[in-house]
Amino acid sequence: MKQQLTQQQIDELFAFCRKHYVHYYDVQLELVDHLANAIEEKMNADKNICFEKALSEVHASFGYKGFAGVVEAKGTSLYNKNKQLRLNLFFKYFTIPKIAFTLFLIAFFMFIGSVVPQNNLSNASAVIALVFILFEIFIAVKSFRIFKKVSKKLLLISSRYQQNFFSFLALQFLAQFVRFSDKYTLSITSYYFFSFIIGLMIVATLSYYDLCKKLLDISHEQYPQAFVS
Q1: Does the keyword Membrane apply (predicted)?
Q2: Domain ranges of the chain
Q3: Which residue in 88, 13, 117, 57 sits closest to 4, CA to CA?
Q4: pTM listed for this prediction
């Protein structure tokens, strides 16, 4: 009778992967499947070999780099597949209504600049910047709440951390712009440029939040064990 690994042994393989710095659960699944098949082949070929020895021999077969090469290959494969998925989801967000909303948002900010006296443009931009900061905080809190359900790291949703980097760059831009507007009189051209950038950043933040939610749904469907029940 063909010997198969028990659930306890499969759990040991996951622990073995974590011990060897394989942190993403979706990559662990790929690697555990590879290890389990190789170990089962050894144990069926030699009835006297134990699980621990078979695992040691399979691990040794990876060479001095250990899992590094396999993890890199599987990680690259998953990343490329997920990258295409993220791009498709991202561009699907920009429907005609969303594009119209973007144009309306930019036009609204520019309209404010057209009715505010030039000597108050700096104050208007500071208020808009403050609103944007509060908006970023609101989105960050919502993102934190939806990702609290993830109990294991997934490569598929690792892109959510890029949103934090984007937000950091956006806030740095705002800080520099407000500092500039406080020091110099803000021209209407500079204000229009500011309005254009703010409008794009708001829509980009919304689209990335929508992307993360969709990736989370896909991750939950593919890897339910990675989520808190």
Answers
A1: yes
A2: 7-75, 94-226
A3: 13
A4: 0.69
Mean pLDDT of 35-64: 88
Is a pLDDT exceeding 70 seen at residue 175?
A: no
Is 143:163 a contact under the CB 8 Å cutoff?
Answer: yes
| 29 close to 152: Cβ distance less than 8 angstroms | no
Helix axis angle, 25-45 to 68-93, nearest 10°:
140
Return the higher-pLDDT residue of 169 and 221.
221
Residue 90 and residue 98: Cα distance in Å, rounded?
Answer: 12
| Nearest C-alpha neighbor of 25 from the set 211, 219, 214 | 219
Question: What is the C-alpha separation between 109 and 71, in angstroms, rounded?
Answer: 48
Question: Burial level of 227, CB count in 10 A (0-12/13-18/19+)?
Answer: middle
Burial bucket for residue 8 (CB in 10 Å: 0-12, 13-18, 19+)? exposed
